[in-house]
Amino acid sequence: MPRKPGTAPRRKKATDKLPSLLLGAHMSIAGGPSKALDRGRSIGCSAIQIFVKNNMQWFAKPFAEAELAAYHKSTDRPKVVFGHASYLINPGAKNPEFLEKSIRALNEELSRADQLGLPFLVLHPGAHMGDGEETGLTRIVSSLDAVFASLPLGKCRIALEITAGQGTCLGHTFEHLATIIERSKFQERLTTCLDTAHLFEAGFDISTTKGFWKMVKKFDQIIGRDRLSAWHLNDSKTALGSRVDRHDHIGKGKIGLAPFREIMRSEEFGAIPKVLETPKKEDLKEDVVNLRVLRGLLG
User: Fold this and answer.
1) Over 60: is that where the pLDDT of 113 sits?
2) What crossing angle do the helices spanning 174-183 and 209-222 adopt, rounded to 10°?
3) Mean pLDDT of all residues in the chain?
4) Phi, then psi, of 157 in degrees rounded to 5
5) How far is 191 from 141, CA to CA, in rounded Å?
6) 236 - beta bridge partners?
7) 3-state secondary structure at position 272
8) Rg (CA), the chain
9) Residue 195 bridge partners (DSSP)
10) 10 Å Cβ neighbour count for 180?
11) What angle do CA 115, 178, 94 make, to 5 degrees?
């Protein structure tokens, strides 16, 4: 339950029992989606995020039956696996051809996510491309409604991600996300994802404990905690309010460790998956270091 206004957050002691530490990182699906499970398991992830196809392509060949079989047969796997939509998709696009392609691509990605049994697909809400926030938000709502209407039996939800607000991108305020949800005909299929780097870059000063909980209180008031489905744990290479999206390793950027300590220790976020999107190479060594830092904050 959210804390009462004016009260300090309960800090979890090292001796407290965690119901389930859902922690991990984004994993590549190169070689098939089951390989992402293997990669996550190899470094001890209990939660991972994946793309449901090549992120740099609009469309993909259908999953081969063998790929889906290998994925679903895997037993020793992270407890939570969710998806992230391609960065090419812009539900607020101004160009009609680009908008149509975005809607079609999102439809395909949700269908692929359903084939994998993913609970939600994280999505950057989109950019208005110079037409202004109101027009952009209207197009986003219309686009998402069109996608959901075309998939009446779909189960995968969309988790609208807070953004840094770079360029004409929308979603850098809680009001933007709340507006999209409130105007949608399919509110039950919309949830949210909070990214620590994006929050900081958008102007939320979460670099202190007080600032972090002030942000959480505002989120609770405008959107509601029941709409929070995932955390992206990233430090920021750019300054507070820079509106420039650049991720850094935990504790190595401009944010510091304060918000990560609160997220890791608080019972309020115990059941919410937390994944890294920090820079790394194929050997995943950077993920190992960042996960070690995060787990160290529990002590």
Assistant:
1) yes
2) 20
3) 94
4) -90, 170
5) 14
6) 247
7) coil
8) 18
9) 232
10) 25
11) 75
CA distance 299 to 4: 25
Q: How many CA atoms are closer than 13 Å to the CA of 98, on its beta-carbon side?
A: 14
And the tokens for 88? 């090419």
* CA dist., res. 225 & res. 74, Å (int): 32
Q: Is the pLDDT of residue 299 over 90?
A: no
- Length of the chain (residues): 299
Structure tokens at 183: 């105007």
Q: Domain spans of the chain?
A: 23-296
Distance (Å, whole) CA 78 – CA 24:
9
23-296 CATH choice from 3.30.300.130, 3.20.20.150, 3.90.226.10, 3.30.2090.10: 3.20.20.150
Cα–Cα distance for residue pair 251/276, rounded to 1 Å: 13
Q: β-pairing, 228-233 with 190-195? A: parallel
Dist CA 25 CA 48 (whole Å): 5
Q: What is the DSSP string of 176-220?
A: HHHHHHHH-S-GGGEEEEEEHHHHHHHT---SSHHHHHHHHHHHH
Q: Write down the pLDDT at residue 20.
A: 63
Tokens representing 73? 């047969």
Residues 200 and 255: beta-carbon distance below 8 Å: yes
Burial classification of residue 1, based on how many CB atoms lie within 10 Å of its CB (0-12 exposed, 13-18 middle, 19 or more buried):
exposed
Confidence (pTM): 0.92
Exposed/middle/buried for residue 80 (C-beta within 10 Å: 0-12, 13-18, 19+): buried
**Residue 76 to residue 78: CA distance in whole angstroms:** 7
